[in-house]
Amino acid sequence: MKKALKITLVTLFWIGIWYLAVLIYSLIKGMDLSYNPLFPYPHDVIIRLFKLLLEPSFYLSTVFSLLRIIASTVIATALGVLSAIVCSKINFLNSLIKPLLATVKSVPVTVFVFILYLLVFDLTSMIITILMVFPIVFANVYEGIKNIDRDLLEVCQAYKIPRKKRIVSLYLPTVMPYFVSALTSAVGLAWKAGIAAEALCPPENSMGLHISLAKQNIDNEELFAWALTLVLINLVFEFVLKKIIRAVFKRYLPNEVRNENK
Question: Are both 130 and 29 inside the same structural domain?
Fold first, then answer.
């Protein structure tokens, strides 16, 4: 009950800030205070959102964008984990992959989008998402593997403890917190990068296409409505992911993470 009240109060506070910002902007620009097409009021955006909810294309675009981002995140996570395991065993490969990680961290998303635009138009958003998620997963999992207690590893080798038991009792408990941290950080970044790539290089049946069209038509109500949709979906997406992580990897998580939001 307290949590619901807190969320309600925080939401009302920021809606109030939104109303105040629109009023100030309208006064500065000398525009009609009752309606501002450039910086719409929250109630205008919500009305437009409900109109979007009545259109089949809204659901089709949302589902396809979600599928692209989820698929890309899964691929990037698998590649990141596998690469971290291999690079932890072969130092030379770790040296080879460092320039790629440095490039991805340094170059803005828009540059990659413009490069991929001419090469693989339809796959641009997926490749961008993979490029954004991969370094986070790789770096965290690699760090986790490197932080495994070497003394315990030597004990396992000395007593010839089976590989499967080593993985379950030593590797997973050490690496899993790093993996969970990477995954929770990567989800939000994947969502933002994927939609940004869609907006700059819009494939058919995508949220990015609608955002791009709204921008071209200077339809800020629809633009804000799609932005609100993105925020709500991301909140739900992260909430569901955290629940899944706690359910699947509960035994490997620290108590503070395991009991969070209970």
Answer: no
Q: What percent of the chain has pLDDT over 90?
A: 21
CA gap 237, 240 in Å, rounded: 5
Whole-angstrom CA distances from 104 to 76, 79, 143 are 13, 15, 18
Same domain, 17 and 57: no
Using alpha carbons, list the distances in angstroms from residue 224 to 18, 229, 261: 12, 9, 30
- Report the domain count for the chain: 2
User: Is the CB of residue 116 less than 8 Å from the CB of residue 128?
Assistant: yes
CA 77 to chain centre: 12
- Give the tokens for residue 256: 């503070």
Other Cβ atoms closer than 10 A to 192: 16
pLDDT (tens digit per residue) in 251-260: 666 555 555 5
pLDDT digit string, tens, across residues 219-242: 889 999 999 998 888 888 878 877
Its domain, for residue 32, covers 1-39
| Contact in structure between 18 and 46 (CB atoms under 8 Å) | no
Co-location of 48 and 17 in the same domain: no
**Which of 171, 168, 191 is CA-nearest to residue 241?**
191
CA 19 – CA 228 distance, rounded (Å): 15
Name the average pLDDT for the chain: 83
